[in-house]
Amino acid sequence: MTAERTRATGRPTLDQVALRAGVGRGTVSRVVNGSAQVSPGARAAVEDAIAELGYVPNRAARTLVTQRTDSIALVIFESGERFFAEPFFGRIVQSISSGLVDRGLQMVLMISQSPQERERLEGYLTRQHVDGALLLSLHGNDNLMATLEQRGVATVRAGRPTHADAGTFVDADNRGGAREATGYLAQLGRRRIATITGPLDMAAGIARLDGYRDVVGEGIVANGDFSEESGAAAMQWLLDRHPGVDAVFAASDMMAAGALRVMRQRGLSAPRDIAVVGFDNSVIARHTDPPLSSVHQPIEEMGQEMVRLLLAKIDHEDAGEGGLVLSTRLVLRGSA
């Protein structure tokens, strides 16, 4: 029977796929349900038959059998404005989405900032709706991860927790990267090195400040929130209150870009007057004037590892407990 005739006579069945592939019905079921207990040859034959016949699994029936929804929630605790403005989010979402698609899973993207949004998403995140959740940009001692795990929803977060009950997380070496950036500025002979921090209710903001202080002690600290406008405001404060500053480590490329803009407005240039280093090595770093030296964090790898660890938890595989911290490196450009 041709694929066209099969489609014409109704929706192809599991039995028809098995017949076309020359395997048993159980083998087809295992392939459709993502089981690893299938030989490569049988899997290829089944996948070819599925493509030829245009077979589409009955998701509702499959959910009853597997007790899975094949959906993963990606929850981002920031405003929509910040989500679309900051390159970090686009890069890690793309990486996570690709990893889930490769496993035949769908991603449910949820952005939450207000208490009302938080209440709705907390009610949605159950085993009836998703198999697991990936959490980005958690602030403070947020206990959502523990709540979801108690419900049986496997969870992995981006960023090291600020509290003792770590759970499973993936992070970049924020402290080490900040230490390397600040140490490099000191090696250049800069003696008045300031920092513009990220939000200090987030692990990344705290760690990057700690890395800076590993080199200079208490130092000169201006507060930011990772946004360009906060970097500009912090740079204005530094120039007004600490006019002798000769280097700045900004805890994000967005803030560094804001700092460079204020310097130009004040008639100052980098690195002649003030050397500047950012963090993220985002596309922004290549397009500032001058191009920005920045700490590279492996954002795509972070997304891939979050998916790997989450799927291992869902499949009850031993992927190791606790967290995974990925290395960073300093990328030098014209600003320092």
TrEMBL record:
PANTHER family annotated for this entry?
HTH-TYPE TRANSCRIPTIONAL REGULATOR GALS (PTHR30146:SF109), LACI-RELATED TRANSCRIPTIONAL REPRESSOR (PTHR30146)
A GO molecular function held by the record: DNA-binding transcription factor activity
What's the protein name? Putative LacI-family transcriptional regulator
Q: Which InterPro entries match?
A: HTH_LacI (IPR000843), LacI/GalR-like_sensor (IPR046335), Lambda_DNA-bd_dom_sf (IPR010982), Peripla_BP_I (IPR028082)
Pinpoint the HTH lacI-type domain residues. Answer: 12-66
List the Gene3D superfamilies.
Answer: 3.40.50.2300, lambda repressor-like DNA-binding domains
| Pfam families assigned | LacI, Peripla_BP_3
Q: Which UniProt keywords apply?
A: DNA-binding, Transcription, Transcription regulation
Does the entry feature the keyword DNA-binding, yes or no?
Answer: yes
